[in-house]
Design brief:
Number of strands: 9
Number of domains: 2
Largest sheet: 7 strands, mixed
CATH class of the largest domain: Alpha Beta
Strand order of the largest sheet: 5-4-3-6-7-9-8
Distance between the termini: 74 Å
Structural class: alpha/beta
Shape: elongated
Number of helices: 12
CATH topology of the largest domain: Rossmann fold
């Protein structure tokens, strides 16, 4: 069958083989996602379109995106979108790709009350914006050192209609607050760079070669951001307020110790669905 009049089924089979040869995990899933993206149909409805011939321009575009995926470009960077906690977020190479594991932090935050959130290193804004969508009366601030990342967060904020409830500020951790430096929050969250420098080579190429390095590693032992966050928390957390951060699977004890040294109580490590340490939480002393 000629490529210019191939059916969706034929193109999908060819793409799946191509991705499998390139060592892409679950090549059939990614091929389906990308074909649905090219054809502009919902992934759940793709099967209905597979028997039909695909227009030549769509077939060529599909080949292009499959080539990108075979080069280990993440699917989200190709489509520009990523589903997180039931909502679609804009994603670019300027931000971390939102991951299912981060939803553990969302669940932990939603387990308690909050009205004012600070998200340190907000990236795409997926954590802050998700929490505010789930709590309609809450407001928050997201900070990031990267202007390109903040542009993504701005666009996600506006797409979700949260302009009136979210401020975004550029700067390093608490320093981004500027004139608001004395403000205190009842919830502070962060998914900071926690990959140790010696671990970078072990990352999948989708992550190592395509996501922003400054959001992945501190170029040291992976704990630098936690030290800085813990040091600033006493001045920015309300009495009884909570701090919670995502961590690497080997960092639970070290980060928990940093929390305790900063005076936080009720420090706990929460595991993800695979049983790996994923989130550390702590609470400031009540007034």
């Amino acid at each position: 069958m000629s490529a210019d009049r191939a059916t969706g089924s034929a193109l999908l089979a060819q793409a799946t083989r191509r991705l499998a040869e390139a060592g892409i995990p679950d090549p059939g899933r990614d091929a389906r996602r990308l074909l649905a993206h090219v054809l502009k149909v919902a992934p759940g409805r793709l099967t209905l379109f597979l028997p039909d011939p695909v227009e030549p321009e769509h077939a060529l575009l599909f080949q292009t995106v499959i080539d990108s995926r075979a080069a280990h470009v993440p699917v989200s960077h190709i489509t520009g979108r990523r589903l997180f906690y039931g909502r679609e977020f804009l994603v670019t190479p300027a931000v971390l790709d939102p991951r299912p594991e981060t939803e553990i932090l969302i669940e932990a935050a939603l387990a308690g009350p909050f009205t004012r959130i600070l998200d340190l290193g907000t990236g795409s804004g997926c954590i802050l914006l998700t929490l505010l969508c789930e709590r309609e009366r809450a407001t928050g601030i997201g900070t990031d050192l990267s202007q390109d990342a903040l542009e993504v967060a701005f666009r996600n904020r506006d797409a979700l209609g949260l302009e009136a409830r979210v401020a975004l500020a550029r700067g390093s951790w608490f320093g981004a607050l500027g004139e608001d430096d004395r403000e205190r929050f009842d919830l502070i969250v962060s998914n900071p760079p926690y990959i140790a420098l010696e671990e970078m080579l072990d990352l999948a190429p989708e992550v190592r070669d395509n996501e922003p390095r400054m959001a992945l590693t501190d170029e040291g032992d992976g704990l630098t951001a936690y030290r800085m966050i813990a040091a600033g928390v006493p001045s920015h957390l309300l009495p009884g307020g909570r701090l919670m951060v995502e961590i690497g699977p080997t960092q639970g004890s070290a980060v928990a110790d940093l929390f305790r040294a900063a005076g936080l109580a009720e420090v706990a490590v929460i595991a993800d669905l695979d049983g790996r340490d994923r989130v550390v939480v702590g609470r400031s002393a009540a007034a």
